[in-house]
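Retry 2 of 3 after timeout on previous attempt. Resubmitting structure tokens to design endpoint.
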């Protein structure tokens, strides 16, 4: 596995993020894949996030949320744009709604950040496991 990781390190350029979740995903992928000056492969991703209330207090107010995410990704060659690998990863994270709006917003952002890290790690693992196709 270590040799496969070295095989892909600094070969993959990750497409620029479009939003906060994309920024977290790209940052984690670049930590794992490297930030090459010249790369022969490009990773693009489409992020889909939903949020559901899952916990309620006796008065009916929401106390907990699940943030579910799916990232559909593609790895293409820079030269001709041909798709080399593709996949889809899913996961979720949760956060508590608190008595203050500011704390709840911070908890929500943290849950989304954690979700993107989990999914980025899964994308990285999938690419490493399929590195022989590269």
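Retry 2 succeeded. Sequence:
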């Amino acid at each position: 596995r270590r040799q496969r990781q070295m095989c892909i390190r600094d070969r993959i350029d990750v497409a620029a993020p479009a939003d906060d979740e994309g920024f977290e995903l790209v940052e984690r992928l670049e930590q794992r894949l490297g930030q090459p000056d010249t790369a022969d492969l490009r990773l693009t991703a489409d992020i889909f996030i939903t949020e559901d209330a899952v916990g309620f207090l006796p008065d009916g107010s929401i106390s907990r949320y699940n943030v579910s995410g799916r990232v559909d990704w593609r790895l293409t060659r820079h030269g001709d744009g041909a798709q080399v690998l593709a996949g889809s990863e899913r996961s979720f994270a949760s956060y508590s709604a608190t008595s203050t709006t500011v704390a709840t917003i911070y908890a929500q952002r943290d849950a989304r950040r954690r979700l993107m890290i989990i999914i980025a790690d899964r994308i990285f693992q999938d690419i490493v496991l399929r590195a022989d196709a590269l």
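Attempt log closed. The longest strand covers residues 41-56.
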